[in-house]
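To whoever is on call:

I kicked off a structure prediction for a single chain this morning and the downstream step that reads the tokens threw a length-mismatch warning. I double-checked the sequence; it's 342 residues and nothing unusual in it as far as I can see. Pasting both halves so you can look.
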Amino acid sequence: MTNDHRAAVPGPAASGVGSLPGGDLGAALRLVFDGLGGAPGLPYLPELPARGVGADMAGRTAALLVDLAVELAPSGWRVADAAGRDHGRAHSHLRRDLDLLEEHTQDYTGALKVQAVGPWTLAATIELKHGDKVLADRGACRDLAESLAEGLALHLAELRRRIPGAKLVLQLDEPALPGVLRGTVPTASGFGRLRSVEEPAARDLLRRVIETAAPDSPVVVHCCAPDVPFATLRGAGASAVSVDWSLLTTRQDEELAELVEAGVMLYAGVVPALDPVSSVPPGYQKFVDEILALRRIGLPPRQIAGAVVVTPSCGLAGASPQWAARAQRLCLDAAQALADVE
């Protein structure tokens, strides 16, 4: 099963994974919308983890949880009895960001992407109040997923009220999912590994979150790790899969071909997320060629180009502001070149 709303973002297009450097959201929004606000761009609500507690990936998503509070411990985020200062900071960041986004998108019409951590990566990140990570307790995983799904549904509903002309796209970040399936996620102590989750259980929980949170919007699942479980993500109802293109291997070709033929979009992370070492940065044609190398799966170049959204390989929080702007421009130039592929 795949999400039936993928046509809201036809390819080829260009977007970002989510994070940007710095702490000025107004400047980040201008960068995103000035560069991606028209076709073939897919603008997004930037994440700025440099702002500190609550602006990080897990803290930002924790601000969306319903009836579940978290706090920051020395080892990271953990479930709390009640919302405290750390949870409040995360919530304040999100409120201010939505206010600025609404101000910046007056009369905006078009696709708009927002990001959150997916249920399995969140479970592999947040700890229980007195124990290991949430991932160690299957019942706690279900409770966390239900809280997340409800919170995401409310989040998208609020965005629709604030920006009625936007066609929303939800991205779920699941970089830990391959480790969850393989049983390689470390325990809270770091001395052991949490037992693996069976594929059907991982797929079904993710599917419930997707169906509850975004029944009327495309859902992209981002996994910038080796061995992306494409079949699991497709079975969970993802309408697009976002990957670090450099980590793909030829043994995944059959799965990639099945995705494209099924109409699942590929968010191709081909542009480096960090500043290049070379003094001569790459041009967009290099990334076009890397994407079209997928012709090896036996599909025509035009079909491949039409299935692609060009992005950086991961978030740009670790890049310089100059490279972040350049990387976004390269994504757009590559997407425009792909539009001319015969």
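Update from on-call: the warning came from a stale cache, not from the record. Cleared it. Sanity check on the structure: The longest strand covers residues 110-117.
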